[in-house]
Amino acid sequence: MTSVVRRFRLLTHRHRSAFSNQALGYLLAFNAGALNAGGFLVLRMYTSHMTGFASQLADGAVLQHSTLILNALGAIFAFVSGAAVCAILVNWGRQHRMHSVYALPLMLEALMMFPFGLMGATTLTYDTPFAVPLTVLLLSFMMGLQNAVGSKTSRGSIRTTHMTGNITDVGMELGKMLYWNTRSLSERQAIRHDRPRMRLAGGLVVLFVLGGIVGALGFRYFGFVCVVPLAALLLALSVPPFLRDIRGGRAMPRAIPKHRAD
Length: 262
Hints:
By secondary structure, the chain is mainly alpha-helical. 70% of the residues lie in helices and 0% in strands. The protein has helices at 2-10, 18-43, 50-63, 66-95, 103-123, 134-154, 164-178, 195-221, 227-246. The longest helix is centred in the N-terminal third of the chain and has 30 residues, at 66-95. The model is unreliable at 251-262 (pLDDT under 50).
């Protein structure tokens, strides 16, 4: 049990490992799938789908449909803002050598999810200049915030809110796995699939789908309150390192290459 608790706490630790990156990525993919699929039942929009909103922006421009344009601009603006806020929090935490450097954006997401889960139906009634309810902008902001966390912790190798890249990685590794290497090829020339990469990408897709199933069922039978347990899980990840910083502890420098402040 002690080992499990320690590993759980390491998921948001300042110093990263392959295990912590992968485990945190799986958890965030599950969370994104739940919010995305559950939100669709209420909003009829997939708020993590920036590719779709970018296409909607183009369609709206051609069709001269102002509502489509405003909807897309609002979702994209909120998603970008979430990613920008994550970058600000993470880089600020790095400069101050905080233990909660990656926990800060997750804590912010959790604190946004709690009122969303408790007052979601009320939030839906608030109009915005983008011709969508405030809930759409809140979910898009959280998706951008969370996706940037996965990217920051893994240096861009893990995306948790949209699966296009992960599914592409699975397809490419499948192609390499099925590739017929002739005997004339040397071991260096032979095509080999990257099993860890394939497992990671496939795992993210599976957890996103499972989260979507849980989120859809939760929203269907319990409403917005089903978001509260997800928020509580994020708080459980982010509060311990934050409290450690408040008590005066600072992460000591280590003799390993540091993350670049991107």
